[in-house]
Amino acid sequence: MAERMFGTNGVRGVVNEYLTSELALKMGKAIGAVLRGKVAIATDTRVSGEMIRTAVSAGIMAVGFDVLDLGTVPTPALQYYIKTHTDVAGGVMITASHNPPQFNGIKCVLDDGTEASRVEESRIEELYADDIPSVAWNKVGKEEKITGAGEAYVDHVISLVDSEAIRNAGLTVCLDCSNGAAYQTSPMLLEKLNVRAITINCNSQGEFPGHPSEPTEDNLKDLKYMTKATKSDLGIAHDGDADRCVFVSSDGKYVSGDKSLALLAKYILSKEKGLVVTPVSSSSLVEEVVNANGGKVVYTAVGSPIVARKMMENGAVFGGEENGGLIFPDQQYCRDGAMSIAMMLECIVMSESLASQVAALPVYYTEKRKTDCPEEMKKPLLEHIEQIVTDVKAENLDGLKFNYSDGWVLVRPSGTEPIFRVYSESKNRDVAISRADSFEKLAWDFVDPEGLHLVKKALQKKKRTKKAPVNPQQSTL
User: Fold this and answer.
1) Is CATH 3.40.50.720 the right assignment for the domain spanning 365-463?
2) CA pair distance 397, 164, nearest whole angstrom
3) Domain range annotation of the chain
4) Any idea which residues carry the catalytic annotation?
5) Cα(453)–Cα(9) distance, rounded to whole angstroms?
6) If residue 262 lies in a helix (H) or strand (E), which one and from where to where?
7) Which of 221, 242, 243 is nearest to 174 (CA)?
8) Is the pTM of this model over 0.85?
């Protein structure tokens, strides 16, 4: 049986440790042998992007197939290009999304623009484990540079919203691209929609010097400050490859992915009733809002490809994850950061400010924790928790979910990093925190019985310093 290499979102690892040029070359050969046709490829802004891209491209060409190099564009821009070009057999995105800059990854896309399913990933892994033959010298593939893929993607996003209403609204937003793949496309989108954009971290700096590429509240302090200080209508932030998007309200408050998912579900259901698909990690807020607005929620395991395929199977009107990854079927069946921006702009223009809409939502408290956990300990840890926690029966759609009368706890291993996640939710803040503490301790005591994590935590706290707010006039469009 071939080694499992693909996680929740592609093959990822630290560059030149796990993810070497040799691995990328061989992975390229396996991908070419499975897709068997012209392959589009793109990167985010990571400093290792070119090294991994050229190695994967060489592998694809070595087995006889042509490569189309789209350059640096968001993952959904690559997916849209593949979906709209019938002569392309599939694609590869070189990205590690929200992971630290020393990581990179290889994500595979099928000819309809969707991420490869586990079936295709298994075939690639099986071929990777074998000695893949190269073609004769005069049968190797060619590489062609493609320009304009980002703008074509942006133009199609604009065609799906009420662009006239947005253009006439006179909006101002603050935009943080995390120095990632959207550094050109999202400013372009806002300019074409006549939205004034005050930008931060909108350069192609793949070491992510502004802040880590995960758009968490802690990482977006500058954006929160700028949005409020400049009296902007909205703050917008992407992850590294811009398939996700989170928002900040005009009063400088971070809006969690659950809340934006719920608000856009409500707005979409006002136009068309139907199903909304989301993973088991999403807040109960989403289901409450969807039910109140004539829709129904279908739950899946965590992972955007799983959500997208369930949407396709059920004809869902909307779907997404609690991390800001939203899927709009009229655009394409994948997480789409630019589409999220455009739809949220339309939503606030047609309704109320984001701050007002968030204030009207039901209140839930969600605690999210993560602990270091080696790959080989993930399954034993899950089994340990299932044996220890006996006061409530666990669901096992993804990890273990314990549903209590006043909330729930989800524990699951990450599919992209050597960590173990704990989610705890309740309408009572103290209950959510208490359960999160309890399950986090269970995980730590199993993984690190010597308690070394407590020393590490204390050292991190000691080193932590306050960061001064940026000048809100740093740069403008």
Assistant:
1) no
2) 43
3) 11-147, 152-359, 365-463
4) 97
5) 28
6) helix 257-269
7) 221
8) yes
